[in-house]
Specification:
Elements (H helix, E strand, L loop, with lengths): L3 E10 L2 E6 L2 E6 L11 E11 L2 E7 L2 H11 L6 H10 L2 H9 L3 H5 L6 H15 L6 H5 L2 H9 L4 H7 L9 H12 L1
Parallel strand pairs: 3-5
Antiparallel strand pairs: 1-2, 1-4, 2-3, 4-5
Helix pairs in contact: 1-2, 3-5, 7-9
GO molecular function: ATP binding; four-way junction DNA binding; four-way junction helicase activity
Protein name: Holliday junction branch migration complex subunit RuvA
Keywords: ATP-binding, Cytoplasm, DNA damage, DNA recombination, DNA repair, DNA-binding, Helicase, Hydrolase, Membrane, Nucleotide-binding, Transmembrane, Transmembrane helix
Length: 184
């Protein structure tokens, strides 16, 4: 899975770039608010979306934006294209505010998001993004542990609450066992 790319922009258009990194040109879909010029260097955090008929890369300037994007697409009915459309409309701070304040109008204004989908976004994510529930900074330093727990089916919101209680000096296997005991 591709999680980060850094390289030179070979092609740039609204919402899409070709990023040349390590001898390969990667097509990366980006929010339209994120703009690059050809021959400019870029650093992007990547969400790799794999389906049986395609592999798509979605790029973001910060890991916090990537985490919010992944939260959005975890909602049933929200795919990466709609998730990207939400980021194209506004910043991650405004998306979080819209979720916390249950702003249906904000989500209804986005192409492809109807009333029921907007309600589902707010219901599914409000508890996950309300202040204090997710501390993305805690998750950054323990990426191997977080990746292991996510692959076992746990949500980042669940993991964030137990990360401070894990002794990071232990081997990864011991950290995972301790985390599983805390998550029970």
């Amino acid at each position: 899975m591709i999680g980060y790319l850094e390289g030179e922009i070979k092609f740039a258009s609204k919402g899409r770039i070709v990023l040349f990194a390590n001898g390969i040109g990667f097509t990366v879909f980006i929010p339209q608010s994120l703009t690059f010029l050809e021959k400019e260097r870029a650093k992007l955090f990547i969400h790799t979306h794999l389906r049986e008929d395609s592999l798509s890369l979605f790029g973001f300037a910060t890991v916090e934006d990537l985490d919010l994007f992944e939260l959005l697409i975890s909602v049933s009915g929200i795919g990466p294209k709609i998730g990207l459309a939400i980021f194209t409309v506004t910043s991650s701070e405004n998306i979080l505010k819209a979720i916390e304040s249950s702003n249906l109008t904000f989500f209804n204004s986005i192409s492809g998001v109807g009333k029921k989908t907007a309600q589902k976004i707010i219901l599914d994510l409000k508890s996950k993004v309300s202040k204090g529930d997710i501390n993305f900074k805690n998750l950054e330093g323990s990426s191997e542990l977080v990746d292991s727990l996510v692959s076992l089916g746990f949500q980042k919101s669940e993991i964030a609450s137990i990360i401070p209680d894990i002794d990071t000096s232990l081997p990864l296997g011991s950290q995972v066992k301790a985390a599983l005991n805390l998550l029970r």
